Amino acid sequence: MSSENKSKIFVARNIPDAGLDLIRGACDADIWLEPLPPSRDVLLEAIAGCEGVISLLTERVDSEFFEAAGQQLKVVSNYAVGFNNIDVAEATRRGIRVGNTPGVLTDATADMAFTLLIATARRIVEAADYVRNGEWKTWEPRGHIGMDLCNKTIGIVGMGRIGFAMAKRCRGGWGMDVLYHDQFQNEDAETQLAARRVDLDTLLSESDFVSVHVDLNETTTGMFDAGAFERMKSTAIFINSARGPLHVGQDLFDALASGKIFAAGLDVTDPEPILDNDPLLSLPNCLVVPHIASGTVSSRNGMAEIAANNLLAGLADQPLPCWVNPEVDGSP
Ligand code: GLV
Ligand code: GLV
Question: Mind giving me the DSSP string for 82-139?
Answer without folding.
Answer: --TTB-HHHHHHTT-EEE---STTHHHHHHHHHHHHHHHHTTHHHHHHHHHTT---S-
